[in-house]
Model the fold of this input.
Amino acid sequence: MSELYKVAIVGSGPAGMSAASRAAQLGLDHVLLEKTDHLSDTIFKYQKGKHVMATPSQLILRSDQEFDAGKREDILERWNARTAALGVNVKYNAEVKAIRGTGPAIEGSIQKIVTRARDGSTTTTEVQRHAPPYAIELANGETIMAETVVLAIGTQGNPNLMRCPGADLPHVTYQLDDPTAILDEHIVVVGTGDAGIENARGLAEDPAQGNVVTILNRSPKSANVRESFATAKEPNAKALAEDDAAGKLTIRYETETKAIEPGWITLNTRDGEERIRCDRVIARIGSAPPRGFVEACGIEFASNDRLAFPTLSPQFESSAPGIFVIGALAGYPLIKHCMNQGYDVVEFIAGNTALKPADEPLLEAKFASLPGSRSVNDWLEFLRERVSILEGMTTLQLREFMLDSDARFYPSGATVFEKNDPGSSLFAIADGSVHVRLDPNDASKVVPIPQGSIFGEVGLISGRRRGATIVAAQDCICVEISRNAALKLQSQVPSARRAIERISIERQLLQMFGSGLTSGDVVEVVETAKILSVRAGDAIIREGDDDKDIYVIRVGSMIVEKEVGGKPVFLSYLPAGSYVGEMALIDGGQRTATVRAAIKSEVIRVDGEAFGRVLAAKPALLERARKDMEVRRRTNAFVESKKDSFSGIVDLYSEQAKFLVSQGLGEATDVLLIDERLCVGCDNCEKACADSHDGLSRLDREAGKSFAHLHVPTSCRHCEHPHCMADCPPNAIQRGPDGEVRINDTCIGCGNCQRNCPYGVIRMDKVPPKKPSLLSWLFFGKGPGPGEPPARWSKKNTHYTGDPAVDEALDRKKAIKCDMCAGIEGGPSCVRACPTGAAIRVSPDEFLTVARLENEGA
Amino acid sequence: MASIAPRRRTGASRERTSTHEGFLAHRDFRWLKISAALAVLLIALYIWVPLPAGHFGSSWLGYTLGTIGALLILWLTMLGVRKRAITPGRWSLKAWTSAHVYLGMLLIVVGTLHSGFAFGWNVHTLAWALMMLVIVSGMFGIWVYASLPRALSENRYDAEGAITEKQMVEAIRSLDRQIHDAAQPLDAESAALVNRSLEEDPFAGTFWNRLTGRYPRDATRTAAAELRQRRAFLPRRADDPLDKVDALLTRKEAMLSRMRRHLKLKTWLQAWLHVHVPVTFALIAALSAHVVAVFFYW
Done:
């Protein structure tokens, strides 16, 4: 307890390091505490050569440290050099155990910490806050005194530890820095998340290293890797399964560790215990968030939600006076934000209270076009007060939220968006109100949406085009929340998620049952409705059960099966937007079929009793439901009657339906199917595809899986919730009016979509030069002929101009995928150009019907 | 027990079908019915309409049939352009193929009636003969299209689903690499045998080889057979490198024969076009000569 620092910074990641650098630059008396023996452990642990991105690109960097997108090594090297040059006082190997105030107790400032035990019981501990200076206790027993503390420890937390006997042995490790440095070892990797899979594959990649790698998975083996490796990204899981099949490594399913001893490990397997050689255990079983430690410092969190962040002042000060929280722990995972915050927080501590955050000019520009000149802070307050879903946000969260969103003014009568416009953003009304037009031709048929509410949530959830036209009923100010910002909002502010869910449930029910139903009629139903997440293959309704609830499929799709003669027979396919389960409610009796998720889905469970009361009150609705039911009942009867005489065909049909679902039809909206009894292999579909789209084919006919003469080629399925859309930096992947998922010209060629697509249908390529016309090929043999030109021809015929800007564009690879020939009269070329009728494009709900049974000759 | 959500589509001008219907059965055999009706009508006209004897071609019915026939030939030839010109529009190549097949067969009736059964050693009969050759080759093509695709698809199947031609080639290459490694301990003569298999181009072979699927002088089979023979005279020992090479060569043979079956089927699916298309052009030439001859010299 020698010295009293002005500021102690805990954690040397981008945020902490930037803060310490500012402190050094300002000549503040400071210390930077780092748990490990190097700076910025999170980035240090990135795999070698990883490209680090510098988003958001519009944000200006304000720090004494440099940062730009680049290789991990270059970035770390620059930071290390700069930190040394600035003379930052770094204390390595200084793991902080506790932080407590040593001043007098602050009256009335008591922190309640609620801990939840495994059995669901909670205990509340009260912590009396004490004023600064703070005593920072280190793991090695040392204590450091500081007037203020900047907590920048990130969310990485501490890895979850193995619990079995022998888990404390030195060869049990929790990370792997360089897989190529390990030779001739028996290694057991525990955990099949992305980290575990990457480690295991890295260790087994080069057989010359002589490693024997085993990876333990608690889940059972399944043909669908998404089921057996639920926590990993699908491409990773697939690659692992391939390595296993190739004998490079071993995956042990349904296996856990029982005990570890030097050189050996004992496993609990489905078939009993097994002891295998093991020189090294790498456990990648997740990490515990640092919340417990943070709360013990007297820092309050916004809610009990697992994803909640600490409550902070606009200057990042926590509820413990003098302790500031910045970086990922404060809710900012991006490096640039973190570095700016480090700078700002130290400026504030040094007494510069007039400093505006680095995003101020960006926000000023956002609000510039709105009527009434307010400051940025006033506008933020205005939005928070008036928009119900933004209420729970802190000023900091709101600032960041607004960077991804737009505030707009619409004069009375202006159209916000038209029906069938593309768009997946959510709108919130801060001032004024809007009208939903029910009839495009009649401006008087409208439903009002008041101030404070939201609209556009259907586009947000389903990714489809707008369902109705929205017009400003009076002068109004709306916030357009981009899909990314809306998703983040829902994860950060639980109350916002509930508000959005409630509104979307109500609107979905009203839209689905339509006719004469008002929101007043469904209040009880909406109150009791619950959104459930269903894993692929799980059943929501089981044949023979007695429950009466109704399910609305919100996301994903379901298949209906019936047990006939001891085997499940596929009955029908239900896409998102359908409801199921009303038969038991209307007719009473047991469930007549099993309904299970084809892919990971979300359903709204509507209470049967409550819905029954709505049905009783609305005879028109009951009539409609009965009609829908009749169709299903006929299908049931048809399959039952066929089963006796044509059981082989029913089996084949059932098996084929299962095959198609496993090939992604469960999430498809439009898929190319080839009947191999008709396909002569002429590849005219591929040629037509190339000739309709810049000379590049977006389908590979021969590749892909087949079952019972039905072939699913490698071609886009136009998923309900496209995997490719998930991580597109320029947001270049959109859904078009016919449901096609297409990539527009803003593609930057990063390849994320290609990696994310589970069906391998996206290719990265450059557009070949234009070919001579078909006639000049037919008559004079000019050019490469129909279809995709060979790479050699393209190379020879690419005419570089010498202007680097133009040449770079010629060489740039972009993501290419099927766009269902959008905008081309006649529809998909692959189907039009098939000479034998082997190729058709279908949507699963049209194709997966019992009508197929009849066509197949039953 | 459920309802399907209504689907909204805008601007879609495509025809949607959700079942596979082949080109022969297109639209419930629409073109077969049209062609058959036309054939019956034309034959009836030929029989019942009174016409001057001899030189039938220059009668009004003869001219009509000739004009129809010539235009039909030109239109049928246009399938080759339609197939390759992927223009926008609501056309379907399947519909074209269906019409091509049945109207093409109608041409037997049209052309033969137009000849008035007057055959001789002249350019006119040449045109007719070429036409018949084209039609017969086309009928063979129909048979091939109707029967071989199943075999093509079955040959590509394996436990994992289906493998592509590219994967077959890759599998052979990978086996080649393994054979190369396994053959290192062999003596010079055996190694030379193995080497012949490695140097063999899997795509080599004449058109005849392709068509029959027979490759009598296949180096892989020869190498495997000779190695086995040589081994019979050698003392048996455990861990014989010849065992490994033998096993690999057997696997390569299996994959090679699978690929050759694939190539054979593909060749049959395409070979008839090598008659059908060039003879069509010969036909058009002969037809032009016939038309010119008729108008100038008849």
Remarks:
- Residues 246 and 283 of chain B are 54 Å apart (CA to CA).
